[in-house]
Write a structure and sequence with these properties.
It contains no helices and ten strands. With about 110 residues, it is mainly β. The strands form two sheets. The chain has a seven-stranded antiparallel sheet, with no helix packed on it. A three-stranded antiparallel sheet has the order 1-2-3, with no helix packed on it. The radius of gyration is 15 Å and the shape is globular.
Length: about 110
C-alpha cells in the first residue's frame, strides 16, 4: 500500500499521483481505499553508531517529518549530508532516519543511508 500527497498531469495529459520522491503512477493504474492508517513513526531503533544520510539533486528540497508522521515546516536541501542516530518505521512500512532532534527524513528515491 502506498500513500500519495500530490497529483499532476503529465505531458500526454494523463493524471498521475506521486507515490515517492520523483516517482509517479498513472491514475488508471491505481485504486484508492478508504480508511485512515496511522503515519506515526514507531519501531524506533537506536543505531549502534552515527551514520550519514545523503540527499541527491541539488536545487531540490526533501521534506522533514515529525515523529507523528506529519510534515514539518522545514526541509533539507538536495546535495547535502546529515548525521543520523536513529531509524524508525511507520505502520505502512516506510523507513525514516532522524536528522534533527525532532525531525525525520523519509527514505526513498534520492535519500541514501551510509
Amino acid at each position: 500500500m502506498e500513500t500519495t500527497d500530490t497529483v499532476r498531469e503529465n505531458s500526454k495529459g494523463d493524471k498521475q499521483y506521486r507515490v515517492a520522491t520523483n516517482e509517479w503512477i498513472d491514475a488508471k493504474d491505481i485504486t484508492f481505499s478508504e480508511g485512515k492508517q496511522s503515519t506515526a513513526i514507531n519501531e524506533i531503533t537506536d543505531l549502534p553508531r552515527i551514520h550519514v544520510v545523503t540527499v541527491d539533486t541539488p536545487g531540490f528540497v526533501y521534506p522533514l517529518f515529525t515523529i507523528d508522521g506529519v510534515a514539518s515546516t522545514r526541509s533539507v536541501a538536495g546535495g547535502t549530508a546529515w548525521a543520523t542516530d536513529k531509524v524508525g518505521k511507520d505502520s505502512a512500512g516506510n523507513t525514516y532516519y532522524r536528522v534533527t532532534t525532532t525531525e525525520w527524513i523519509l527514505a526513498g528515491n534520492g535519500v541514501h543511508f551510509e
